[in-house]
Amino acid sequence: MDMMRISQLTERSGVPATTLRFYESAGLLPADRSPAGYRLYGEDAVQRLAFIAAAKHLGLPLGEIGELLRVWESGACREVKADLRPRIAARIADAENRAVELSAFTAVLHGALEHLDVLPERDHRCDAQCSLLSPGRTTSGARPPSSGGLGAGAERWRTQAVACSLGESVPERAGQWRRLLSGARREEIEDGVRLLLPSERTSEIAALAATEQQCCPFFDFRLHLDGPVLGLEVRAPAEGAGMLAELFTTVP
Questions:
Q1: Is the pTM of this model over 0.85?
Q2: Measuring CA to CA, which residue among 237, 68, 250 is closest to residue 164?
Q3: Which of 37, 43, 48, 213 is the most exposed place for a label (fewest CB within 10 A)?
Q4: CB-count burial class (<10 Å; 0-12, 13-18, 19+) for 116
Q5: Count of CB atoms within 10 A of residue 29's CB?
Q6: Which run of H or E residues covers position 187?
Q7: Is residue 196 within 8 Å of 229, Cβ to Cβ?
């Protein structure tokens, strides 16, 4: 049987060599070794990577993908279907919950913008008459969703494997971030960076952050609006520091 070196598998699959090595260490992609110690892969590695990519597209964490691969290796499609069905159902429930939370957060943001429009233009500092100083209040006086919903998985990023399904599209995604982060002020924070930007970019940045986390769930995004300024905080485990630095750079 013809065997492929890691560079050949990268070319065939579009998966970077760094990700292939990570998959091997995670037990998802076994590799043989040549007498000289080079990794060697069979034709089934291409199919295995396609299966991993499809499972990641569904939002399955690597631990579950490993369990699913063991079922897939048995070759019985009905068993894969039976194993996959409850996992997808769980992801649907999670996505629906997040959609509700995001809708509520969007309402809070709209309320904040509406309130900014009706605030009087004053030349002195904000004081107690400025309700923006009352944390979490909207125009109607209602409070946004408690952190119990959005915060329940706030630290989930710490336990996610540092692997990304972007593949060769990393440079394209980096270009999107560089465009949106142009002129941002960058501050180092624990586990990541804080970027200060004009609030007009909020919707674009929120949409790109949501897309980014689908591909790379080890990133943690937090947005904070303070009048005309948007604060974007991005965190990642230590193993993801390189990709964080690559994507979230700033340009003058």
A1: no
A2: 237
A3: 37
A4: middle
A5: 21
A6: strand 185-189
A7: yes
DSSP H helices, 34-163, are: 44-57, 62-72, 77-118, 147-150
Chain Cα centroid distance, residue 110: 24
Give the C-alpha separation, 155 to 13, whole Å. Answer: 32
Radius of gyration of the chain (CA): 22
| Residue 197: other Cβ atoms inside 10 A | 21
Beta-carbon contacts of 145 under 8 Å, excluding residues fewer than 6 positions away, are 101, 104, 105, 108
pLDDT for 73-124, tens place per residue?
Answer: 887 888 888 988 998 888 888 888 778 778 778 877 877 777 777 777 777 7
Taking 70 as the pLDDT cut, the residues of the chain under it are 1, 126-170, 250-252
Q: Which residue has the tokens 């003058």?
A: 252
> Tokens 């485990």, residue?
237
* Separation CA 128–CA 125 (nearest Å): 10
Q: How many CB atoms lie within 10 A of CB 235?
A: 20
d(CA 160, CA 218): 5
Q: How buried is 178 (Cβ within 10 angstroms: 0-12 exposed, 13-18 middle, 19+ buried)?
A: middle
Q: What one-character DSSP code corresponds to residue 158?
A: G
Amino acid at 117: D
Gap between the Cα atoms of 112 and 14, Å rounded: 44
Length of the chain: 252
Distance in Å from the first CA to the final CA of the chain: 53
